[in-house]
Design goal:
Two copies of one chain form a homodimer.
Chain A: E1 5-13, E2 17-19, H1 35-38, H2 40-43, H3 60-66, E3 72-78, H4 79-82, E4 107-111, E5 119-121, E6 124-129, H5 133-143, E7 148-153, H6 155-163, E8 169-175, E9 183-184, E10 196-202, E11 208-214
Parallel strand pairs in A: 1-7, 1-8, 3-4, 3-7, 4-6
Antiparallel strand pairs in A: 2-9, 5-6, 8-11, 10-11
Domain Bacterial bifunctional deaminase-reductase C-terminal (chains A, B): 10-190
Protein name (chains A, B): Dihydrofolate reductase family protein
InterPro entries (chains A, B): DHFR-like_dom_sf, RibDG_C, Riboflavin_Biosynth_HTPR
Chain lengths: 215, 215
């Protein structure tokens, strides 16, 4: 079986915005983005990886949170998904936004031009890698033990891999809130129809799941 | 985490019928039921367990076929899902409808009042067990290695476990074909609303996914 590159549970606003432009340690998603609103659909499900209490819904949205780890052997993320730093790494003590128990449970490849030693938190190992998308994907596939690779985001990273035509499937949850400005995944989901099949599935929670797979 | 009892990918007609009453070796689903029509929605997906060729859709329906094995450690099935025999086992050479590579990959508990030794085909071991639903579920949970148990069907078996209030979640795909007679899972999916949340999700393939989870 081919090892797919999959975007999973990526959430954008109704106008296609996934993050504010000005991310900081206090504002991981940038100003104007309230992750509590954007990810409410996922947080309400039984299988949400960060859930600390029992309960949660087991309807449609749960199939998507439940699928987050399914047959995934590695993740690729942009540097901004790891932390707010820019330029050479200053503070190796700060080890990312993901806490001592990151929800990835696989090798994670953080794309950066700046070298930094790998480290492990619980069962997630972060590697810091340069190179173009195809090179990084090769490394992630090699580490994935035959499984698929998840492309974690953010917007800029997903766009780079789309431009390089390396993405096999995307699940994007469109949240019924308009943001106006920020980092935009698309002008319209129709932008991708030339290369992908698209199914649009409204959820009772209010988000609309967009499922793309390569033609 | 609790070990759930889950019905997965169970397909019924628009009038709630899952099988004909007169199953035989030639007609596993009973007369009047064409499995090619009933399961076309699943067979078209990339993750359909019996798929022999590459390709297949990766939209909504694929999330359901993909979830078939997710966190499942054992299956319970009624005797009719194993084979058409009734009464004491006559022919131990015939080892079920599922071929040399059954799609279960876990212990399977076949409910029957008639003793028969366990046997293994590939990575699926079939056990033949008597007793009431709660007793059989205890055995399946014990064999599931902490994972969930799938309740495979058919209709009669699912109804027995519903009557005993042992089912935690159900995914039922309702196919847009009316059968008129046969074994009926429900008069209406609303029958279960007193005990279950219900989300109804239409798929572009024509089936309507019904997702139930315990209130």
């Amino acid at each position: 079986m081919a090892q797919l590159l999959r975007v999973q549970n990526f959430t954008v606003s109704s106008d296609g915005i996934g993050a504010g432009a000005d991310q900081s340690l206090e504002d991981p998603f940038g100003s104007g983005i309230d992750p509590g609103t954007m990810f409410a659909w996922a947080g309400a499900t039984a299988s949400w990886p960060n859930r600390t209490e029992p309960g949660g819904s087991r309807g449609l949205d749960d199939y998507f949170t439940r699928d987050f780890t399914h047959d995934i052997g590695a993740e690729i993320m942009g540097r901004n998904k790891f932390g707010p730093q820019r330029g050479p790494w200053q503070d190796h003590e700060w080890r990312g936004w993901w806490g001592d128990e990151p929800p990835f449970h696989t090798p994670v490849f953080v794309m950066t031009h700046h070298e930094r030693p790998s480290f492990t938190l619980s069962d997630t190992t972060f590697h810091f890698v340069g190179g173009d998308p195809a090179t990084v994907l090769d490394r992630a596939r090699g580490a994935a033990g035959g499984k698929d690779v998840r492309l974690g985001g953010g917007v800029t990273t997903i766009r780079e891999f789309l431009d390089a035509d390396l993405v096999d499937t995307l699940h994007v949850a469109v949240c019924p809130v308009k943001l106006g400005s920020g980092l935009r995944l698309w002008e319209s989901p129709d932008d991708l129809r030339d290369r992908f099949h698209l199914e649009i599935v409204p959820s009772p929670s209010g988000v609309t799941h967009h499922l793309f797979w390569r033609r």
